[in-house]
Amino acid sequence: MPELRTDWLTGRSVLVAENRALRPNEFAEGSFAVLSASIAPLGRTLSTCPFCAGNESCTPPAVYEQCDGDGNWRLRVVPNAFPAVFNLSGAGNANGTDTAAFPAVGLSEKWQLNIPIPGVHEVIIESPFHAERMTEVSQPQLYEIIRAYATRLRHWRERESLCYGLVFKNQGSKAGASLTHVHSQLIALPFIPPSVEAEIRRAAHFFETDEKCAYCDLIDQERTLGSRIVFDADGFVAFCPFASLQPHEVWLMPCEHRASFELASTSDLKQLAVILHRLLAKLESVIPHLQYNLLLRTAPWADNYDAAYHWRIELLPRVNSLAGLEMAAGVHINPVPPEKAALQLRSA
What we know:
The protein is of the alpha+beta class and about 350 residues long. The chain is about 25% helix and about 25% strand. The chain has helices at about 140-155, 195-210, 215-225, 265-285, 325-330, 340-345; strands spanning about 5, 15, 65, 75-80, 85, 105-110, 110-115, 120-125, 165-170, 185-190, 230-235, 235-240, 250-255, 290-295, 310-315, 330-335.
């Protein structure tokens, strides 16, 4: 029987309805055509790919690189050529754009305000070779990728005008990717997004009333229940959240209380790389031609959230599309109960 699940911490509302998986779908055949081709051996480069080694002139100059002993880059970070904000990152303005030069705030219509937003939008090019999936790179290289995430977040948290950073990966066209070469993106903003702020307010209220972290309490509850746990060892726990937005959604969190991902130790980041590589392999074995969003959520930088916040990585397979109910009411439909999804992933 379909049931409505509401998660008080994130504010999510999800209809878990297994019967929806039985619907006829005229669009199913070929829906993963973009990723259905066989993957070529790692080590190839494409002359047409702007992210492959040898094509550096196709991107803005790098603001951060990791190189091997011969000086060849293994990972590059470049300003996004099509930024969503007035980009403070870049060779010409790495020390900060003069915000006084931004256009003035305008009022287009009554009660509708348009405000120029200075921020950061970077692309992390994760391999010089044309890998198309994160599981194609080695675990040591995945550690270097994760280390780059932490390094760039630390860099931008020092900028007083910025107060929130997010790293995300769009894998596949259904997840919003426009290029197949493995890459992630970093956004840093001068404000805390409304949905993040609402979650933090609830977490802060929980801490004030219960004198403990809401996320640590969530981990304890998931461990006690057990049915949604995918992995629990080596300092990290992964589980399918109670109100999963998508089938086989997984949250990966440190077991000990940690607010800021960018302050994680080297040993924790190395262990995270091993576990993340394993989780992605499990997801790929359960969901053919996996397309997904990876969201790395860390504590905002504006105030001290050390006590009330807990960083996490969300893996959101893009199985269901947003349709009328999701767009109009903000209520998602998930045809795979997270308990069943966790069982399948544990067994993968």
